[in-house]
Amino acid sequence: MDILQIVLTESFWAASLRIATPLIFGVLGALICERAGVLNLGIEGIFVAGAMSGWMAVWLGAGLWGGVLVAALAGGLFGLVHAILTVPLGLSQHVSGLGVTLFATSVSYFAYRTALPNVSSPPRIEPFRPLDVPVLSDLPFLGPVLFQQTALTWLALLMVVLVWYVLNRTPLGVAIKAVGDNPSSVDAQGLSVYGLRIGAIVAGSALMALGGAFLTMSAFDAFFFGMINGRGWICIALVIFANWRPGKALIGALLFGAFDALQVRLQTEVGALVPSQVFLMMPYILSIIALVIAARGADYPRALLQPWFKGQR
Amino acid sequence: MIRIEPRQATSHCLKYGVPVVSAIVALALAAIPLALAGANIATAYREMFSGVFGSVFAFSEMLTRATPLIFTGLAAAIAFRARLWNIGAEGQLYLGAMAAVAVGTGFLDVPGFILLPLIIICGAAAGAAGMAVPTFLRTRFGADEVVTTLLLNFIILIFLQMMLEGPIKDPMGLGWPQSPPILDQGMLPPLIDRMRVHSGLVLAIVAAIIAQFLLVRSVWGFRLRAVGENASAARHAGIGVNRLLFSVAIVSGALAGLAGVGEVAGLKGYLTADLSPGFGYTGIVVAMLAGLSPAGVVVSALFIASVFVGADSMSRAMGVSSYLADLVVSMSLLCVLVGGFFARFRIVRTRAAAGGA
After folding, report:
1. Is the pLDDT higher at A198 or at A4?
2. Tens digit of each residue's pLDDT (9 = 90 or more) over B151-177
3. Handedness of CA A78, A82, A85, A88 (dihedral sign)
4. Do the beta carbons of residue B28 and residue B327 sit within 8 Å?
5. Which CA distances in Å does B320 have to B23, B36, B41?
6. Chain B residues within an 8 Å CB radius of A114
7. How does DSSP classify residue B278?
8. pLDDT tens-place string over residues B8-44
9. Which of A115, A153, A257, A265 has the fewest CB atoms within 10 Å of its CB?
């Protein structure tokens, strides 16, 4: 069948990894926040802020890595807003997160429009180029799939390892997971629940923003209104699918990327028979299906969504 | 030492004062982006004010803008009270609009007194169905409705685009992806001659009054609040939580669907994929600013609509991006959240030696 031929091509897997990259950043970021006990629905807006600020920094001449840094800082800053509202103030994580999404999105759109009032076509930057690793890039299958991705895809893969290592092999990781399961026990050990949670949210949000930055600095070379298009929400679904584990998060994002790459290719095959919108819907429908499948066995961090106040038992 | 302790009771002054102060603070904070955009701040505020209160037409435009916001604000307020996180009002609005177009554009050529109620009922039913699905996925499979309703917004919008290029495309529309117009007798009559404000506003206010009454005075409202405050206690008290959540979902979805009916059958007359500039999401801000009270939703919808209409007018006059309105709206949500904290808790200074409470 045609599908098999598609799936066996190098370009298919290269595309899957490319589509998965922003999701890897987003899922890891959301996972860190939730492991510390705080749902971060600011993700969609933080993606927008990362995409806009990173692109804007490069456009103003900060250089590509300067842009990455600016995006991460912007993400961390909006994450801090969410952290202050949900951790010391203990406000509704749902509403605060949505508030941060609306705030980050409108700040980004307003800033973009104010800096560029009358542009009909968005200005472009010189985006990240694929890293051509000598020898490895010429490997038969892995070469094109792995070794012709941009630096940000590599950074995403590195982050999977790093987040896994920190969460599972360091005292800091143990503390973060404990603060998401049983904050009072962490407090009893003399560690700061507030500090750990706020730190996790800021770090997680910075990662999310890199997902946005990938879109404007690697996948495309410009910023568009509405370009995030629900990617943040998909990440929130994928975290549950991944059962809050970095390795599974990578697999989930890759599976998602593969399905998305497949539908693009199927669209060119049978596009005449089925309306294109059917394919456009697929990522969102798949996310809902993944969520329904995973929801029953989901091993939610026990203190997720529960505010904790110092002095409370 | 600084300690946070819950207040024994929240005074009326705080309850009504917090949203008002939050709104004022958010409006005042708009001076920062205005200054960054290089605008004269005083002139900008004057333009915003006259953009809403400067003429009868301007004021009627504000009321037109408030109509869908009352509906989506009610949708969010009712659902959030029961801790059913309906973030899908945007999609449900479009479902309502699609249903209105499906029955109202000539499929049934019946007199207005039949057609108009039919459009309203079908729109409400479509919105209700749109919220029933994620609620089913939650009660049956445990799938978080926050994520499913958010994702459904995208699915429904893409579905709408598909419909607008296919079954409900206007053959006379010169190729534009838009539906045929609603029959004249199916349109909600305008309230004032030569202005766009329509009787959907009356429907919205009636809906708010009914919702307020049901929530505060009915057994259903009592159960709803009980489930929202403590679902497991409500279950022990013999309340069928899942059934209640379904009824809440249907009411909430129907209200969001009515927002779509009003926009299509009251304002535009035909359906396009850009019918709503995020009314569903803004409804959440409206509801939060109203303290999740249906009666309060009317007031906060008027405020939010004023911000949008005022900022639009200011933007046209001074060239400052109209995204300023979205910025003020999002800041008022964050402000009211912080304000809500101070309404529920107070910060007490205690001497370290004084010890416990």
Report:
1. A198
2. 999 999 999 999 998 888 888 877 788
3. negative
4. no
5. 21, 10, 11
6. 33, 36-37, 320-321
7. S
8. 777 777 788 888 999 999 999 999 999 999 889 999 9
9. A115
Please check whether residue B165 touches A, CB under 8 A: yes
Q: Closest Cα of chain B to A199: distance in Å?
A: 20
Read off the tokens for B153: 């917004």
Is A3 exposed, middle or buried (CB count within 10 Å of its CB: 0-12, 13-18, 19+)? Answer: exposed
- Would the CB atoms of B147 and A240 count as touching at under 8 Å? yes
CB contact under 8 A, B165 and A94: no
Average pLDDT over residues A162-182: 96
Residues 6 or more apart from B65 whose CB is under 8 A from it? Answer: B305, B308, B309
The CATH number of A2-117+133-295 is which of 1.10.260, 3.20.20, 1.10.3470, 1.20.120?
1.10.3470
Q: Among candidates A18, A230, A125, which has minimal Cα distance to B154?
A: A230
Name chain B contacts of A288, Cβ cutoff 8 Å. 137, 143, 147-148, 151-152, 155
Q: How confident is the model at residue B106 (pLDDT cuts 50, 70, 90)?
A: confident
Residue B171's identity, in one-letter code, is P
Hey, is the C-beta of B142 within 8 angstroms of any chain A C-beta?
A: yes
Q: C-alpha dihedral over B213, B216, B217, B222, to 10 degrees?
A: 130
Identify whether the C-beta of residue A39 lies closer than 8 Å to the C-beta of residue A29. Answer: no
Helix, strand or coil for residue A249? helix
Tens digit of each residue's pLDDT (9 = 90 or more) over B264-296? 999 999 999 999 999 999 999 999 999 999 999
Q: Kindly state the tokens that stand for A305.
A: 């969504």
Q: What CA–CA distance (Å, rounded) separates B299 from B247?
A: 26
**Residue B1 has what DSSP assignment?**
-
Q: Is the pLDDT of residue B180 over 80?
A: yes
| Interface check B152 vs A, CB under 8 A | yes
Containing B349, the helix (H) or strand (E) segment is strand B345-349
Nearest-CA distance A110 → chain B (Å): 5
Residue B351: pLDDT band with limits 50, 70, 90: low
Task: Pick A102's closest partner by Cβ from B144, B161, B329.
Answer: B329
Of the candidates A89, A230, A310, which has its C-beta nearest B341's C-beta? A89
Of B182 and A143, the one with more pLDDT? B182
According to DSSP, residue B190 is labeled: B
Chain B: give the shortest CA distance to residue A98, in Å: 9
The predicted complex's ipTM stands at 0.92
Cα three-residue angle B287-B291-B296, rounded to 5 degrees: 70
